Amino acid sequence: MINFNKKPLFLAPMAGFSDLPFRNVVKKFGADVTISEMISSNALVYESSKTLHMLERSELEKPYIVQIAGGDKEILKKAVKMLNEMDFIDGIDFNCGCPVNKVIKQCAGSALLNDLELFKTLVGTIKETNKKNLTSVKFRLGFNEKYPEKMATICENLGIDFISIHGRTRKQLYSGKSDYSSIAFAKASVKIPVIANGDIDANNALEVYNITKCDGLMIGRASIGNPWIFYEIKNSQKVSQSLKKEIILTHFEEMIKHYQNQAVSIFRKHLHEYSKGHKDASAFRDEINRINDAKEMKKKIELFF
Length: 305
Hints:
The chain is of the alpha/beta class. Helices cover 44% and strands 13% of the residues.
């Protein structure tokens, strides 16, 4: 389902940002593979309506991968069985990289890098239970120290289809630079496809490929306020201001379709990012913070950009 010979570009799962409207936009403008926001296996099993809404996929998303997180074997198994019943999902990704405290306290996300036996058990459980075409794992270089080849080898031995590695430890959170040499070391230790993640943008994409020898790139924070990054990496050229405006308006239309009355208030955070670096950006942000009407918001976007 994913042609790794073509060095695919992935949109990273990002809480509060990689929702259906955003995924639809990046898919229109160059992203090859999209992944849902991180879904709590607990929330899924207890059928939170918000969680079920987060699972929805756009027509363009093929393949579409859902990322789940959790530290309890039985709940993860139940969550995977639920996802197996949903025809529109092509793969399941297991989050072993989230560094935030509330996830760590549940012995989930990058907490699993502190207990590789549990990591192995949970990854194996997901692989055995998953009936979808793809099973993947996303992890960091380690918890406090760097040992990505250990997780990579465990995943390969369990039959995982591909892995994504963020070039920092949990201890680093998002500080310091992403360590592409450590991703390269993990890549050299396995035969399964490896996707590089962390601080990747249009300026360094080629350098990351050259250092890591990876099979694809996963872009997260650099795509916020900049969803045309996938187009720029693929075409080695900057996007025109008129195309940027078209993309922003497309994003807003997708938000209205998906969130209806809540779209205007949710879209403000995106407009804050889109307007960065523009003249009179702070006045624009101040203005849109007071707008609640979709038609008025659209007019302001058209005038500003």
